[in-house]
Amino acid sequence: MKLEVEVMGLENKEKLKQFIHYLIYLTQNREEVGKTVLYKMMYFSEFDFYELYEEMLTGELYRKIPMGPAPVHFDEALEELEREEKIRYFKNKYGRYEQFRFESLREPDTSLLNRSERNVIEADVEKLSGMNATEMTQYSHADMPCKASKDGEIIDYELVFYRHPPYSVREYEDD
Fold first, then answer.
1. Distance of alpha carbon 130 from alpha carbon 127, whole angstroms
2. Which pTM does this prediction carry?
């Protein structure tokens, strides 16, 4: 079962790469966006999209780690993007911390991302921009899907339907 879950996240590898590249492109000039912040922006975009449309954006899996949700196939996708000379990543000093930063080397191909998907990604970049890694980690820990998961577990997308403000992005009808 575990192997099956790990493989499931690779169904949309090209779409995942486009998503990561687009997110890097949108955030590359924001000094607070390093690897940890990028992880959380990915998580919120994926889970917000699922809450709104009840379908996965890329199908990527997120594991709860001590620093919050982390995409399972990020490093693999990032290495491919770098080999394809679409992005580069490097270490940078941010305050007293060392930060992994990302730069887009060309405009991203977003042909696999529809307008609704790009809208959610762009809205989350605006909503979450300005938070550093510490703030973003604290914020993500309080989101129901992350909060309800144990360390090391794959976070269940269905948990978005138990969110409360300010995390919920969907208007629900009162029963």
1. 9
2. 0.90
In a domain, residue 171? The reply is: no
CA dist 141 to 26, 104, 137, Å?
24, 29, 6
Tens-digit pLDDT profile for residues 19-29 = 999 999 999 99
Q: Is residue 168 part of a domain?
A: no
- 151 touches 64 (CB < 8 A): yes
| 172 falls within a domain | no
78 contacts: CB under 8 Å, gap ≥ 6: 20, 87, 89
Domain carrying residue 32? 2-159
pLDDT tens figures, 131-171:
988 999 999 999 999 999 999 999 999 999 999 989 999 88
Residue 34 lies in a domain: yes
Q: How far is CA 157 from CA 7, 108, 136, in A?
A: 17, 27, 19
Q: What is the mean pLDDT of the chain?
A: 90
